[in-house]
Design the sequence.
């Protein structure tokens, strides 16, 4: 297992990146991956959970976060930050 950490800007939070080598397995007419139990536990995943495959220039990213939902949340956070006072006033109604 590979473990790295880095600090990101502007939030300056610690980000730990773990890499585990897995093997592609033939499952019937498809190909699947077996994710180690420890990784499933750390990511709060279980059998039959939905995950998303994102193809990037660097390879494949497997994520439990829906990219469309994540983009919507980023957009909401930006709007909320820009309109903080208006949202606070609306919350008092």
Sequence:
């Amino acid at each position: 297992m590979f473990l790295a950490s880095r600090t990101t800007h502007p939030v300056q939070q610690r980000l730990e990146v773990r890499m585990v080598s897995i093997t592609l397995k033939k499952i019937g007419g498809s190909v699947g991956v077996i994710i180690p139990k420890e990784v499933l536990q750390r990511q709060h995943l279980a059998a039959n959970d939905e995950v998303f495959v994102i193809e990037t220039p660097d390879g494949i990213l497997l994520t439990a976060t829906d990219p469309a939902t994540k983009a919507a949340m980023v957009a909401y956070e930006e709007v909320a930050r820009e309109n903080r006072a208006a949202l606070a006033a609306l919350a008092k109604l």
